[in-house]
Amino acid sequence: MARPKGSRTILVRITYDTFGELAGGIAGDTARQYAQRGQFNPRDLDSSLTWVNARRTAKGLPLIGLATEVSEAVSDEDLEAVISTPAPIQTGLLIYNPITACYREDI
Fold first, then answer.
1. For the chain, how many helices (H) and strands (E)?
2. Per-residue pLDDT tens digits for 63-99
3. Which domain of life is it from (predicted)?
């Protein structure tokens, strides 16, 4: 079944209340007013994060969207391969076979 013509799939929904919370606890209406004044574009994630991070910096809060502790990437070249041992053979137990949906006794 196809989607109705003109419908959109919503991936992320951020309200002005969310912008206000992220910016350090201002009201959603206040965040909307800042957007209407042109301080940030609520439809542009980069613009919104820049504005939110500027407000958070002014209040001494950590930034959003940036790593606080940047570490070097781990290389796979130095790692050793893990060799697994085969499972021990079980005898005298009931073993369930999901293909046949029944138990079989392994002697």
1. 3, 2
2. 887 555 555 666 666 667 777 776 666 666 777 777 8
3. Bacteria
